[in-house]
């Protein structure tokens, strides 16, 4: 028979078990923090009706959609978790208690050109809080407080959550007279780190911003210092625009609340250069940078939006959200050598019967371990001892529990640490406590 | 602006948070048992290349595929987790330690006509063990041992895992002279419970089975009794076909091992009527029935196959697997009223600051609870007490932690049980232990 070459499409991540274990550990850590902050789980369909999913989309996004017909319906794979959230909240409005805090950690799809570190199928790990008509400002601090706990527990070194407020930016640009070019100017400023100050200045000039205003803009976004210093500078810079003052007041409150959440001062900072590309952010915005890997860019971004559901309902539902692109983050950390795989299996013990006569006792031992909550595998194949130990070794199982006739007769096992090679005979009923103690 | 009606395609399950919590609890229980038995996690792409995914498929399966072109590639959404496993094992053969025990619990897609209880997007929760050239028979007992633990922990009442062996069936039919009609006869017998004995007899006659052989067939599959009695009947029925005897020997071993695994005798039984439709099962086969809900049919099925990867490689990789259709199972149990939702949120406590002045202390309280591993939400919105309690009530949060000026001054909180309405003042630092104790 002709064989088909087993392969997958480029731009799709598929992991070997050891990597999958590390990936799942990250996934579980994020989920655990999200749940600890009281976010509700959600799991929307991967396939949505195109007219619903693409109500807002256009341009680049639309080109990337996996879209197809089936059974007479025009269908699309979701490209993010925000549009499905908007659809969900509108559709199930009557059944939801607000503020609605939800998390969703699932795959999304974008048919981009494949390139290193860009994926067509990837996990987003989102939290959002949606209010009706209004949403307390303290949620603007809860988001980075959650992210602070996530990255502390992920334990990939120092990180900083950069915070800005679109009202500060919008108000400032109104005050320098470029109110109608805010979007364009913000887009140019957003590239400051990428293209450098001279290119920004040139692009601003191309846009028609006069040189004096360019100076003002660049000196404004160049305000530096500790969080309190920046707030003082903003308050003292003589701009009386209402939106601006509102933004300054908001960011001051958010900083105060962040301290209330117990977030370390060195893990968050006001950064006036952050705008975030998306059109719909209207208040607080975030980016998160791993200090040891600044070239990764933001590994977790988000912000506040005034109206999540305008394409589906007349209700006004403001919200705030933040997202971790887990697939990309995992890939980059793996490339950097930061992710250390520990094992290919959840099993902590491999029970090894020396002969078929020992299988019954081996099953009993495995049962006792499992009932104590210790993940346990048993090696049944009739192979030599070397082969059995190699299996434990390849999978990274820390303990071998060897059972021969002597052990079985005595109601004991031989416990071997795979790392040290040390062996000791131990009573079967003492085994779980022993493993847990080590 | 014109609004788009928010909706999803029929045949797709989307849950409200309380149902999602119950669903996730089932998912997590299954995953936890799979991991406790040492199965490795896997997460293959949802989109596969059509020529790879459909190497074997044909007929009904192929019609149900979500298939589309993108970027010049012919792509399909996976319709099960077995074909991707075969592809994965063939593709990554050199990097895998065998026997390869993997679990995968993910969505699959079938564009069926929508009908009650049938889904186009649904979770399959699969375990499989793959060997190279051979795979010990004890894995045929490990599968139902895992499933026994899963359904015991899911706690949906009594259940029984029905076990048969295709070699017994194949050998028997060879002995009555209908070797070349085995597939057809098995297909008719498979419908015994659905269509009844008379219809089976008629269909057998239509197939050309003479009346005497029909009697033999029906009396054979009518063998009843305890597991050991059935085995004795099979041994004593005078059939000397080698395949048959091998099957009897295998099922005897499997039953013996199942006892070794500590599986209760009333949770498994030999059932000679089970054949399983799929062509590729070659040995032990399983079905699982919830005793209180026989009309649900099998909620967990599987079996042994000789060669998983024949479309991708010349290597011979026998395996055994079993699968839970979680979406359907959840839907059916929900319909039957068996699933009792407990809460819409993971949060066990809702911290409620009485006024904005109490927010700082509320954040401290929430932090202490979360750091103790207790999922905690805080109600920040400036609403009346009634509104705040209603939020806790709607979400099913068991404890309200109320903080007013008095409590704050004393370093205390008012702990209220939402179920009993009882309130008590308690020191903040004693709160986590108190919650955990209750």
Write the layout of secondary structure elements.
The structure is a homodimer of 438-residue chains.
Chain A: H1 17-36, E1 40-41, E2 47-49, H2 50-53, H3 59-64, E3 67-70, E4 73-77, H4 82-91, E5 100-109, E6 121-130, H5 139-154, E7 159-165, H6 166-175, H7 182-190, H8 192-195, H9 197-206, H10 211-221, H11 227-235, H12 242-260, E8 268-270, E9 281-290, E10 300-305, E11 319-325, H13 326-335, E12 349-353, H14 359-371, E13 376-378, H15 385-395, E14 399-403, H16 405-410, E15 412-417, E16 423-427, H17 431-437
Parallel strand pairs in A: 1-5, 7-8, 12-13, 12-14
Antiparallel strand pairs in A: 2-4, 3-4, 5-6, 6-11, 7-9, 9-10, 10-11, 14-15, 15-16
Describe the structure.
The structure is a homodimer of 438-residue chains. Chain A has 17 helices and 16 strands. Chain A is α+β, with helices and mostly antiparallel strands and 438 residues long. In chain A, 46% of the residues are buried. The longest helix of chain A has 20 residues, at 17-36. In chain A, strand 15 and strand 16 (423-427) form a beta hairpin. Chain A has helices spanning 17-36, 50-53, 59-64, 82-91, 139-154, 166-175, 182-190, 192-195, 197-206, 211-221, 227-235, 242-260, 326-335, 359-371, 385-395, 405-410, 431-437; strands at 40-41, 47-49, 67-70, 73-77, 100-109, 121-130, 159-165, 268-270, 281-290, 300-305, 319-325, 349-353, 376-378, 399-403, 412-417, 423-427. The first copy, chain A, is elongated. The first copy, chain A, folds into two domains: 17-335, Bira Bifunctional Protein, Domain 2 (BirA Bifunctional Protein, domain 2); 349-437, Rossmann fold (3-Layer(aba) Sandwich). In chain A, the strands form three sheets. The first copy, chain A, has an eight-stranded mixed β-sheet. A five-stranded mixed β-sheet of chain A has the order 13-12-14-15-16, with helices on both faces. Chain A has a three-stranded antiparallel β-sheet with strand order 2-4-3. The two termini of chain A are 52 Å apart. The mean pLDDT of chain A is 94. At the A-B interface, helix 1, strand 1, strand 2, strand 3 and helix 4 of A face helix 1, strand 1, strand 2, strand 3 and helix 4 of B.
């Amino acid at each position: 028979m002709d064989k088909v070459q087993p392969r997958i499409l480029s731009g799709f991540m598929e992991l070997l078990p050891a990597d999958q274990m590390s990936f799942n550990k990250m996934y579980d850590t994020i989920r655990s923090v999200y749940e600890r902050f009281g976010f509700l789980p959600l799991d929307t369909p991967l396939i949505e009706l195109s007219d619903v999913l693409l109500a807002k989309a256009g341009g680049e996004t639309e080109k990337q959609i996996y879209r197809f017909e089936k059974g007479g319906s025009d269908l699309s794979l979701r490209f993010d978790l925000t549009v499905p959230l908007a659809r969900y909240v509108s559709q199930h409005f009557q059944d939801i208690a607000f503020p609605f805090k939800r998390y969703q950690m699932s795959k999304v799809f974008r048919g981009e050109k494949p390139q290193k570190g860009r994926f067509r199928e990837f996990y987003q790990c989102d939290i959002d809080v949606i209010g009706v008509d209004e949403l307390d400002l303290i949620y603007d601090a809860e988001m980075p407080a959650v992210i602070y706990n996530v990255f502390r527990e992920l334990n990939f070194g120092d990180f900083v959550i950069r915070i800005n407020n679109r009202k500060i930016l919008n108000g400032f640009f109104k005050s320098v007279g470029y109110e109608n070019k805010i979007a364009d100017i913000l887009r140019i400023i957003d590239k400051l780190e990428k293209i450098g100050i001279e290119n920004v200045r040139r692009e601003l000039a191309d846009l028609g911003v006069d040189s004096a205003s360019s100076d003002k803009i660049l000196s404004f976004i160049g305000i530096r210092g500790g969080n309190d210093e920046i707030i003082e500078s903003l308050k003292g810079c003589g701009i009386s625009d209402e939106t601006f003052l509102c933004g300054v007041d908001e960011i001051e409150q958010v900083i105060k609340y962040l301290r209330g959440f117990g977030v370390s001062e060195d893990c968050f900072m006001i950064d006036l250069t952050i705008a975030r590309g998306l059109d719909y952010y209207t208040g607080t915005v975030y980016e998160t940078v791993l200090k040891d890997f600044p070239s990764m860019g933001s590994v977790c971004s988000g912000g506040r939006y005034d109206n999540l559901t305008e394409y589906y309902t007349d209700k006004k539902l403001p919200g705030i959200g933040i997202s971790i692109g887990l697939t990309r983050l995992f890939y980059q950390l793996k490339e950097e050598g930061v992710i250390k795989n520990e094992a290919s299996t959840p099993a902590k013990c491999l029970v090894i019967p020396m002969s078929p006569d020992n299988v019954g006792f081996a099953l009993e031992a495995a049962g006792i371990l499992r009932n104590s909550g210790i993940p346990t595998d048993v090696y049944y194949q009739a192979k030599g001892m070397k082969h059995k130990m190699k299996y434990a070794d390849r999978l990274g199982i820390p303990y071998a529990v060897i059972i021969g006739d002597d052990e079985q007769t005595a109601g004991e096992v031989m416990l071997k640490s795979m790392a040290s090679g040390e062996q000791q005979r131990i009573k079967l009923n003492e085994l779980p406590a022993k493993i847990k103690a080590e």
